[in-house]
Design a protein that fits this description.
With 160 residues, this protein is of the alpha/beta class. It has helices spanning 15-28, 50-67, 86-98, 116-121, 135-154; strands at residues 2-9, 32-39, 73-83, 103-108, 124-127. It has one domain: 3-Layer(aba) Sandwich (Alpha/beta knot), CATH 3.40.1280. It is globular, with a radius of gyration of 15 Å.
Length: 160
Amino acid sequence: MIRLEIFAVGNLKEAWLRAGCEEYLKRMGLWSRAAVTELEEARLPKSPSPAQIAAALEKEGQHILEKLPKSSKVVALCIEGKLLSSQELADSFSRWAEQGTGEVSFIIGGSYGLSEAVKKRADLRLSMSPMTFPHQLARLMLCEQIYRALSILGGAKYHK
């Protein structure tokens, strides 16, 4: 059984987002051990300078890299990443399992994204869309897509 962990910068503030993520995490339990680890978001002023943003990303990035399991496949969500269909994400899981991967870590940055160090550590840079989504909504969308990929591999009727 594969272990999946989502490392997310920031907390989910809205109850409906938390409930949605919890539901998909519960459903994933049929095929995996899935969890979310929330990491503290760096505090920035209302109108941060580029230097302040860069420093915050660096601080968040260091914290992320400290938490990542060494043997985990790492998927960093970033807008410049690769666009995959749900079937292609499922195929990635299948390929990683064939390679003996026991753990996959997904990383969602804060409102300013991810540091370059985190992106470099990633085995896959994944884009959910060319559109921009709030990072909290991206977490719910990622949970749904992971569940969908697992259901494809498990032969469930969720993906039509």
